[in-house]
């Protein structure tokens, strides 16, 4: 199919994604063979200008927007753009100019960090259980299909973050990424916002962490290594709820292959970046059998995971309606079980949560069978303000 004159070209394929290899001669869709390199790696620069970021990032985005839309909370109308790629059919991207990108976590929250950055709102991963779905209603969208197909892109996020980190009032506190929607979702392959974000954090020597479902983060491994070396406090975590193909394809249909995520865990740990695995959510009758969990724990151990944690599904607000609607269509035999489990609210009963926690600790067998990689601590950078934040294991509490 010929590309439309005003459409972006498709982003570079992501290893492990179902589209990997598509469009390259001799490489079938889903093939393990790597396509030829399309874009040379971006070298690290010790001194970076805001203008340089802006023009380098946008030099290949030549499409003109067909429409604009004014979104709640944003002063200017957002250009609405589309991509000519199979993964982006019927998906619109709203390019907004953010006033601020450092989000303060409410004091009442039990999160182990106080600041987050989210360059995208909405997520094309389309996970049926995603806890972030209700946040889309603040933009005038719904938490169902709109969350997956109406994506807000903070196109100036790197520049705004750099300015915020330079403020005299900023105390250098830990910044967590991947706390709402995935910053390495499909469209990051085109906008490439995360490199500028990492560069801003690196130049500020600011501690940070990342949680994602995508091996696309390996594109920025050079910057992550430097963050680990310069701050002494950079960690990563890959969310991998299951290796079971049926459960994966049903519950998170547009995410990269779980085994590609495991390969990313191994590569990051080999590079000296402590990287763990989050088994979340654990869903009764879907990904919680002893065989499913044990296979994942064995693979995590083989990948050298620095931590493994698991959390039971919770269904807050509109997420309950979306998930139960999905279940009635895909897994009707489980509907009555879930109605009983969640009849009292958003959380599974305490005995069920304890059962799932035991499975993650033991895989259904005797304790101590799965050994995690011991991470050698790096020398710590001088403390600023509140000092060094807790590592990425704390970020897993989001789920």
Structural description of this entry:
The chain is α/β, with parallel strands linked by helices. It has a single domain, classed as TIM Barrel, CATH 3.20.20. Helices cover 29% and strands 13% of the residues. It has helices at 50-58, 145-149, 157-165, 188-191, 193-203, 221-231, 245-251, 258-270, 290-302, 318-330, 335-341, 350-362, and strands at 67-69, 78-81, 92-96, 103-104, 115-117, 120-121, 150-154, 175-177, 208-212, 234-239, 275-282, 308-312. The protein has a seven-stranded mixed sheet with strand order 4-5-8-9-10-11-12. α9 links the parallel β11 (275-282) and β12 (308-312). α3 packs parallel to α5 (193-203) and α5 runs parallel beside α6. The two termini are 40 Å apart.
